[in-house]
Design goal:
15 helices, alpha/beta, single chain, 45% helix, globular, Rossmann fold, five-stranded mixed sheet, 12 strands
């Protein structure tokens, strides 16, 4: 195991540009899998860093006309070998090049694991979107879109929503790009409103896909979902939809949380009531009929299914030993550290790793891109059936590799994805 971390004791070329805790985690996960699969060292070194990284700074005018702020934005394309790159855009005050690069790397493995014709990409703007008016958010989005126009396109790199962005942001993004080329280009982004070429089912796809896999994992483990309990950390798009679909499968939701608070009720929480409360109040804090707990306390509640659907680095060596769940289903990106992984393996916790668990979003984004490029429309039933087939296929391949090679599920999923990318690189060869 120590050799896996060895490259970080050396002075890697370009290390400082991308260095961040999240990028180090992504690299460490990759290096562990690469060592186990005996990946060719030339390909290993090539995949350690993104192929293309763009950093931009641009002015953003606030509603008070004289106030102008300089904002930093990023777009990172990890691998260009597999086809166009694909990945969301994140608006958050802590966004940095390392975080975006880590997310782009995970997107590469995720797309390859799902057998989608994309390489991984990600974008972000270092801003707190909750402190912007609608007009300010629109100006920010349009200027950021202009700044990265040169490296994106429906056949080059297709953005999508992520933390802090939504279908309205994608609509502004699409319109800005379309204005530059002189005609509507729906395929430039995914996750946009249906009336502009968006796909049915895209908004809830990540949460739905996660629950499809929870059902498969429960069947594998012999769990009866109707007698199971679940805790969902995060009540944004992914977490709220995961909770909703779990409840539809008659799982008792005993804990949820968002940025404002955590809620616990051993007798079960009514998800529709929670959704209505959030629509009215914006956050979960103050919801009646539940005990308030901290996010850290929420993770340690006794339950059958724990679904971290919030931020990265939530499950670490400090708290992994206190987790009391049978199935850990990662809806967030990078919620669990490598050290925590080892503890969970020893505790015999079954893991649905992030590159598998939250891949429903990019999968339905792929469906949206196909519909836009070919002028097709699919029904929600068709989309959900296609999503289920792809998600279950990826789960089956990962589980088979895990059992056959005696690997944990994260490493098995990574090897499945990395192997596909490595094969593509070898087949395309080296230019010049």
């Amino acid at each position: 195991m120590p050799s896996i971390f060895q490259p970080f004791d050396q002075e890697l070329p370009g290390k400082t540009e991308w260095d961040s805790p999240m990028f180090r985690l992504a690299q460490q996960q990759f290096l562990k899998a690469a060592q186990i699969m005996e990946l060719d060292e030339n390909i290993r070194d090539r995949l350690l860093f993104p192929q293309r990284s763009l950093t931009v700074s641009f002015p953003c005018r606030r509603d008070e006309y004289s106030q102008v702020e300089t904002v930093f934005g990023y777009r990172v394309q990890h691998v260009l070998t597999m086809g166009p790159t694909k990945g969301g855009i994140r608006y958050h005050q802590d966004v940095n090049l390392g975080e975006v690069s880590a997310l782009a790397m995970w997107m590469t493995w995720k797309c390859a694991l799902m057998e989608l014709p994309f390489g991984g990409a990600k974008g972000g703007v270092r801003i707190d979107p909750t402190k912007l008016s609608r007009a300010e958010l629109q100006r920010l989005t349009r200027r950021y879109a202009m700044e990265i126009t040169d490296i994106i396109g429906p056949d080059r790199d297709i953005p999508a929503p992520d933390m802090g962005t939504n279908e309205q942001v994608m609509a502004w993004f699409m319109d800005t790009y379309s204005q530059q080329v002189g005609y509507a280009v729906p395929a430039i982004v995914t996750g946009k409103p249906v009336v502009l070429g968006g796909s049915l089912g895209r908004t809830e796809a990540t949460g739905r896909g996660l629950v499809y896999l929870i059902c498969e994992a429960a069947n594998h483990l012999g769990m009866d979902l109707t007698k199971s309990t679940a805790v969902v950390q995060g009540f944004g798009n992914v977490g709220s939809n995961a909770a909703r679909f779990l409840a539809e499968n008659r799982v008792k939701i005993i804990g949820v949380s968002d940025v404002s608070t955590g809620l616990h009720n051993a007798n079960g929480l009514e998800v529709n009531s929670l959704l209505e409360y959030v629509r009215e109040h914006g956050v979960l804090k103050g919801y009646p009929g539940a005990e308030e707990v901290s996010n850290s306390e929420l993770l340690e509640l006794k339950c059958d299914i724990l679904a971290p659907c919030a931020l990265q680095n939530q499950i670490t060596a400090k708290n992994a030993g206190r987790l009391d769940c049978r199935l850990l289903a990662e809806g967030a990106n990078g919620p669990t550290t490598l050290e925590a992984d080892q503890i969970l393996i020893e505790k015999d916790v079954f893991l649905l790793p992030d590159i598998l668990g939250n891949a429903g979003g990019v999968t339905v984004s792929y469906f949206e891109w196909v519909q836009d490029t070919q002028n097709l429309t699919w029904t929600l039933e068709e989309i959900n059936n296609r999503l289920h087939k792809i998600m279950v296929g990826a789960f089956d391949r990962t589980l088979l590799r895990s059992q056959r090679d005696k690997l944990d599920m994260r490493t098995a999923a990574l090897i499945e994805g990395i192997q596909r990318v490595a094969k593509a690189k070898l087949l395309r060869g080296l230019f010049p």
